[in-house]
Amino acid sequence: MIKKIMALVLVLLITISFTACKNDSIDAEFDWGTTENGRYENEFFGFSIDISEDYYFLTPQEIVDMNLLPGEDGEIIPYDINSIEDLRAEPLVHYVYTTKYESVSSTNFNPYINIFSENMSYVESNYSKEAYVENSLNFTQMIFENAGVSVEVFPLEKPWFDDRQFAKGTLRIDLEQFSMFQEMYSMRKGDYSLVILLGYSTPNERDELHSYLDTLTIK
Question: How far are the Cα atoms of 6, 95, 130, 156, 185 from residue 167, in angstroms, in the given order?
Fold first, then answer.
């Protein structure tokens, strides 16, 4: 049940598309970025974050494999990321998916950090980064409540990291064993939204993930 809920949250949030006004010039190459000794760096977004080396990091290929959806016949077709000719044109690109544990039992929660970008040029409507977060979480709330799962969306916040303002939204999903919290942070870079998702169930897990956010640098 827990794994299904977590998978549904991820699928819902990564399949929603919103957009905002274009801004910022972009000169650096668009690529997967690099992760070394727990430090993720992305020159295109001028972005870096330090995460404990004890966390379990998926490779870009493993992240893509995790998010593959079955076709009309129910079969999941493998997708080789090396076959992507122009990563800049991809609607959605995942850079980081890391969990505190490589695996846990079905009764325990596995804190995670997920970082991805969405290409907003595929959407005609104009949304600010605040609207991007609000609409994403509100849509998630609607889906879960229609499924009989209690979800609370908290008021939007606007935190600053390294002199860059993000839009932040938080939701709580009430499960039988515990409450799962997900925080969504978003900023804009040209036609792209850079999104950071944090998932946790206890104050200690929250504080640990927030300590990694404190290492954010944005050029």
Answer: 22, 19, 5, 7, 6
Sign of the four-CA dihedral 81, 33, 14, 191: negative
Residues listed for the chain: 219
The amino acid at 97: Y
Rounded average pLDDT over 196-202: 95
Counting other chains too, the contacts that 35-39 makes at CB distance below 8 Å and 24 or more residues apart are 35/96
What is the rounded distance in angstroms from the CA atom of residue 182 to the CA atom of residue 206? 10
Query: What pTM does this model have?
Result: 0.85
Closest CA to 49 of 95, 6, 83: 95
CB 213 within 8 A of CB 204: no
Per-residue pLDDT, 23? 40
